[in-house]
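@channel anyone free to eyeball this complex?
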Amino acid sequence: MAEQTRTITYRDAVKEGLREALQKDERVFLMGEDVGRYGGCFAVSGGLLDEFGPDRIRDTPLSESTFTGAGIGAALGGMRPIVEIMTVNFSLLALDQIMNNAATYLHMSGGLFNVPLVIRMATGGGKQLAAQHSHSLEGWYAHIPGIKVLSPATLEDARGMLWTALADPDPVLIFEPAVLYPMAGELAADAGAVEIDQAKILREGRDLTLISYGSCLHKCLEAAMSLAEEGIATEVIDLRTLRPLDETCFLNSVAKTHRALIVDEGWRSGSLAAEISARIMEQAFYQLDAPVERICSAEVPMPYARHMEEAALPQVMTIVETVRRMVHG
Amino acid sequence: MADFIMPSLGADMKEGLLVAWRVKPGDQVKHGDIIAEIETQKGLFEIEVFSTGVVGPLLVNPGPDKVPVGTVMTTISAGDELPSPARTSSEKRINISPAARRLADENHISIYDLKGSGPDGVIGLADVERVLTLAPPVAAPEVVKQTTDFKTGMRDAIAAAMSLSNREIPHYYLASDIDMSCALDWLEERNRQRSIRERLLPVVLPLKAVALALKKVPQLNAHWVDGKIQLKKDVHIGFAISLRGGGLLTPALHNVDQLSLDQLMAALSDLITRTRAGKLRGSEMTDAGITVTSLGDLGVRTVFGVIYPPQVGLVGLGRIAEQPWVEQGAVSARPVLTATLAADHRASDGHLGAQFLDAFTRILQEPAKL
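replying in thread with the prediction:
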């Protein structure tokens, strides 16, 4: 029997995940700027207020530090809050709460108080929202011990990571690439929770490993298709979880392909791409047939103009050209 | 000109399997260089060469046939007989990818003969693979896959050696209870000033004490060969190390009498790591003059040892546990170590064994001198 699927957008897949969590566990509630009456600034939570009422879909004042702190308090009090922060740029206002409180309480309390909090936020560029709404700072968060950092790039993960994150006893941050919300595709009718411990090989290949996450993953998949026509078989890895990193997956892949290119929308200096590159060098040095390379965003504030923004972000053509050079010299 | 023969890595070894040469004819070697890998029932060992010079033709090919101990495998001519064809470090550095370098090494292909097709002439995997497909099959890697089931092999080897020991060696046994309070107090004080990494484990104290006691009673640092005792000049102590998969090896710690306690601790950690990783050298399997076995960790009080031939003694260390101790009419609790000596009565008498244990005991009362 063929598996039943339906067409769905990334946005609606996230909403399905939210709805399921709200239905299954009465301790779950959603809180953030404009999540209720406005339906979410990216229209993810539209309709949920009517469905679940104002106690569980709560609009908050424009104060990320306050409502993230309230979320931490609620989590400590036994609730399972989902805090939505509009974009990763604004999350910096809540960084103190996230890093100094959520990530450290378990440690500071000698193991007495864990913080089962989930924070969702939109990330990344590509929507002409300019330099204060478009950055990709997941790599910064992946630096912090005490939290998990998830990067759902596929419909399955958009649908299924939330429930697993809520089941985690410690804080989990979920970064949803804003540019992916309208992406539509096929999703299994019975799609549900997914594991969040392992990276995934989305395409197998022998010549080079493309390691990516978030919106760049789709650029890698597109590049891989076009490279396949030239006879270059790339393996594409979706990291999925940025902290802790599933290094076994990419190290094994490099042992097979002997070449790795990391595509990361973050800025290059001190990036997650740098971390992955270092781990490959440390643990798979003798497997390498070429230096590990990285394609990252230009180190500039994200430009507003479309052509400038495109020039600043990793693009399919750059990936194709870099892979070609790495494989053929 | 010296012969390099299949070495005997223990009384129980009759033949060995040459797994791989680590040298080529014409290579310059010096005392202590690893020249070959040899597999015995007990595992894979790196074999050193004990002369300096140039490697002659390789007379034995790697397995699958076993080679009797004593067979000449190659010759080492004195260094000045032939000009060294070895490449010097002043030659141009070769640009080669790590993966390509490894593949070339594994297949004994000289990277100096490779042509790079990568950017700026870098040698890549493809360049090595091209040479490999062109090369005649005889040039294929001369490495034999592991052929012995070490677990059974190990058991067989231990069985052979211990049967020989119990059949031929008339053992006598002596035991002494040793007050370890001075030694442990001193150790605790010393460790207190150190980071955890630099701390000494208690076992290094009796190990060093055995070495110093052997300087006083050298007749126990010996081999019994062809009905005669052969005294050992250097103090190399075999240390019994159990393996995770079962079985044990007793590789030698070299020149223990000359090592500081820190050096001894480092040597011991290194030896244990290499033993468990199967990275021992041949000489470490043969040149111990005595063996120490420590089973105190498991709560054993007294070890009744079986001598590893051709050695003539084995020191057994039990646990260090608090026991009532009577001194000058008063009873107090002291940490007490029961040390035993199993010795070969052909090579020594109980009187000598007692002198050894007495020296060992006294040395442990003055830990600062260790």
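from a first look: Residues 150-168 of chain B form the longest helix (19 residues).
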